[in-house]
Structure prediction request, 286 residues.
Amino acid sequence: MWATLLLPLNADDSIDFTRLEAQAQALGETSVAGLYAHGTAGEFQTLTESEYDRVNHILAAVGKPFQIGASHPSAQVQLSRVERAAKLAPGAIQVIAPDWLPLNPAEMLAFLRRVGTVAGEVPLVLYNPPHAKTSVTPRQLGELAAAVPNLIGLKTAGGDRAWFDEALRSGLAIFVPGHFLASMSLLGAHGSYSNVAALSPNGAVATAHDLDVERRVVEFFAAHVVPLQKAGLSNPALDKFLAAVGGWADVGTRVRWPMQAATDEQVAAARPAARSLLPELFGNSW
Prediction:
């Protein structure tokens, strides 16, 4: 169970690094296995390169296992981020297929081979969410893992038993969304870069394999997250909404322009519902 850093933003969209450091230290004291930055929830595509580097140094200073996302729509920018991230010796570097145009299988292999070379001894995790332009098939995972020795994991939405049976043949560690970890663990998932940890880091760890809690988390999401999603709010906005409902750090709900944030009223409405429906998540001081 890994938890992400979320960007606390000032009114002018600048990062409040004081609040970010406090958030990182708070996460460092939790029971999550490790921390990461620059996934979708971290608004990686909005960062300047100096902001990216500063967030990385804050993450590395926590003293807990950490992974760094080098993701960027540009392959060239991403390669530069991989090179700089590797110097901090993270446990892994997360990468995505370059965006805008999908890659054919040969291009995907060429991308990961070069990224793997630049990463050196640092392992890679491929982040392949449902909205990625390039969708990597379970069978292709095996080909990529065989060709890129330091590719060790996959961050994915997962699938059914047939999907897992094929994907697990790759030998990669399969990490799935937090609100499906309990059920997908039974299919072979190894862990989660967890959206439930955005709601309650310690609670997400304590209930990681509890199917009844998973059912109630999905029920809470259906009532309070899915309507925001249907209204057009982005995944970063949804994760910040969850963190605000959980109240474990001063993250705030603001997301970078032009994305829209959840309102204080929506957060206030969800807080009592979360604690009533999911007391297990909040019984151990977030």
